[in-house]
Amino acid sequence: MSIFRKLLPVALSVFFLTGCGEEASDTPDTSETDQISIDSDGDILEMSIVGTIGVELGDSNYVLGAVQQIDHDLDGNILVLDRSACCVRVFSPSGEFIRQISNEGDGPGEVRNPMSMTVVGDGRIFVESPFSGGMHAFTPEGEWLGIVTPFYNNPPMNTIGADSNAYVAIRLEVGPDESGELSVTTFIGRYEETEEPVVKYWEYEFPFDPQNLTALLENTIMGHVFTADRSGNVFMAELTSEEYLVQGFTAEGELFVEIEKDAERVEKTPEEIEDEEVYVIAYLESLGASGVALDYDPAPYRNSISEIEVDGEERIWVRRGTIHQPVFDVYDFNGELLFTATVPDAGDDAVFWDFNIDEQGMIAYSINPELYQQIYILEL
Questions:
Q1: Count H helices, E strands: the chain?
Q2: The CATH number of 3-379 is which of 2.30.110.10, 2.120.10.30, 2.60.120.10, 2.40.50.140?
Q3: What is the pLDDT of residues 109-166, one digit of tens each?
Q4: How many angstroms separate the CA atoms of 119 and 347, rounded?
Q5: What are the structural domain ranges in the chain?
Q6: Which long-range contacts (CB under 8 A, 24 or more apart) does 268-274 make?
Q7: N or C: which end of the chain has fewer CB within 10 A?
Q8: Shortest CA distance to 39 belongs to which of 345, 337, 302, 239?
């Protein structure tokens, strides 16, 4: 059991395992997809699925377990962090297997329960594994370079590579506030192989209540979406139904763009709320929270924004959270709408899709696949 789990013995035990992961079981299938017209003030373009990676049975290099994160390296190869296999699988841009990086164990370059993976601007691959000492660095060819930053307690989460040796991540700390009561401080910051962020782009403090899992999740890992580009710019949005607001910051933390539009409030159906509750609890249990009483209360409305990506042409991709079908409003760095993009062939499973759009291309995967895990290769 990690020190972090000891600090938050009930609510935050959801973030860690004692070994490598398993896929969430008994997760729901959301079969109701919005069949509505898509409004846009610009052109509506389509993103096509041009290839897939992953098979149900067969070559073990293509059988994917619990996919935790996907990314591109600087050559355009596709990286897949498989939490259950404790490794990063590397595929060519068209989907052919190239190599495996790391495996389960306690030796040099081996990891247990890897929580995130990203590629920083100098090309190195960073794999976050608190049970194996912290942030591991690998060359694109898979050579282990050592632990660049030790993280045992309160590690960064949801890491996104930026410029040079930097990445952006969300992190939280628990400690007494000015009155002596326990509080949680959560923040999104820039790390440069440092234990503390060199820049904080957002920070929030709230009372620590180990019985209120909903508030804990909504104020931390389920509270914001964010991304970064190779110039170090950071873009973020709050996960809320109250507003549609994207903020862009320079690497140094200066706000340079805000994107706002009217927030359409879409109420969740009772089935949708039930499915979300079942899924979140099952996923947390798969991360090691089994045996702990978990009580999660989904919000009644869909979030206005569900995801943010940025490509190599200085375009910000903002996914609408009000529609299950993937719909992105695409803006330039001045906040002007360029076009709207959709994935018409995604199907009902797309409500669970997580995208990676960067200077090397567009890929996606489902965090709750209907049959077996696949990576989708897309083109506009």
A1: 3, 25
A2: 2.120.10.30
A3: 999 989 999 999 999 999 999 989 999 999 999 999 999 999 887 889 899 999 999 9
A4: 30
A5: 3-379
A6: 268/298, 268/299, 268/300, 268/301, 268/302, 269/32, 271/32, 272/30, 272/32, 273/298, 273/300, 274/28
A7: N
A8: 337
